[in-house]
Amino acid sequence: MTDVTNVTMRLNGETRTAPASPETTLLALLRDQFNLTGSKLGCDAGDCGACTVIVDGKAVNACLMLAAQADGRDVLTIEGLATLERLHPIQKAFEDNASLQCGFCGPGVIMSAKALLDENPDPTAPQIRDALAGNLCRCTGYAKMIEAVHDAARELRAQADALPGHKRRRAGGEMESA
Amino acid sequence: MRAFELVIAKDAAHAVALLAEHGPSVKVLAGGTDLLVDLKSASNVPQVVVDISRAADLKGIVITEQGLRIGALVTHTEIMRSPLIRELFPALADAAHTIGAVQTRNLGTLGGNLVTCVPSMDSGPPLVALDALVTIAGTGGRRQVPLTGFFAGLRKTLLKPEELLVEIVIPSENLGKPADFQKFGLRKGQALALVNAAASLWVDWERNVCVAPRIALGAVAPTVIRASTAEAHLDGRAITPEAMAEAGRIAASEAHPITDFRASADYRRDLIAVLTRRALANAYARAKAMREGKNGD
Question: Looking at the domain that runs over A5-80, which CATH code has it been given?
Fold first, then answer.
């Protein structure tokens, strides 16, 4: 009895459209319509963070958004990070630090870290803890994740500095044009 | 989730019209952090959900003639990052930071936090301590009520089915009033308050006495309450550590905390005394720092 409408979004850099009934969550749309199963269905109540994706630059629980609310917006999932050639620096740092064990929470944790580093390229340990507080992991105890985010931040800063016409950072993480 | 019809409101007036059209069972969707969780577990889902999350006139943080106006759709993250709020009401930014986690703060709205009206809401105490008003829109126009009166009971507000909370206003006479927020939960991340408390006060520096003190408590009664006997004890009284500790003890005797799986009523009463004293002491410290900052100019 309810109307199925088309939802169009910019998804991992491409414009994508899929039909969704009103009660479809963004998470269900990603997994069932777009076959992007990296984002996980955990608690389905906004507590565990396994479904974390980035919408318009902000980390959100995809289980707490309706698909229709993502219409016209920019959505980034874990599948949008790596290329065929190489992992994203955050993923590489998680691998190098053995930051994940079972891995179920990983996509959500990495997307939370990505949202943090996009806004704050040089976070402190408390800032990293705060950014990951909405992601539950029952295997690792988090310490190696926090180390990995530090490493990834360092690597991303080095990459940014190596770019021609790069932005130079001042102390405190503020950006200024070189 | 069971099926429902989703209608998107383009602004507050449209939302009110939709609420009136679809009757009392209709639900309002803003940040979704409470509503969608409820709808997933509910056995009878409403037929119609009105999505107000795209209504631009319900957003924004601005100073108006009346005071500081915060749109009902402003998220907890936006409150934490607002330069206006950080300068004028750091206690409100502190409270927003203790809500949920990044993901839920990016979605969840101030209006939603108030309308859901759970006893442990963290936005309530600092706003009550600053004498906040709320503006309600209905089919017959708009009305304003004090936030304390807006809270009608456990998960209950003054809102009629066809009404919408549109904004929160901190009156202009309280702009920059020194205030503080304290929360005690079982963890730092993603924890509901066992008790939360906010205090605000002006200082008469000639006499070093407390003027217009406010103490607001959460999670210790069906709704956020003011500890008015404790406030009366402090009003016009010299500001001393003893007076603030006594105000905390009085506040504890004014509340009606419950025993549940998180904490006992006795433990909560102890927390009220401690958190109230700390909130008052920090508000006073903030008042001093503001005065010294001014004199330094």
Answer: 3.10.20.30
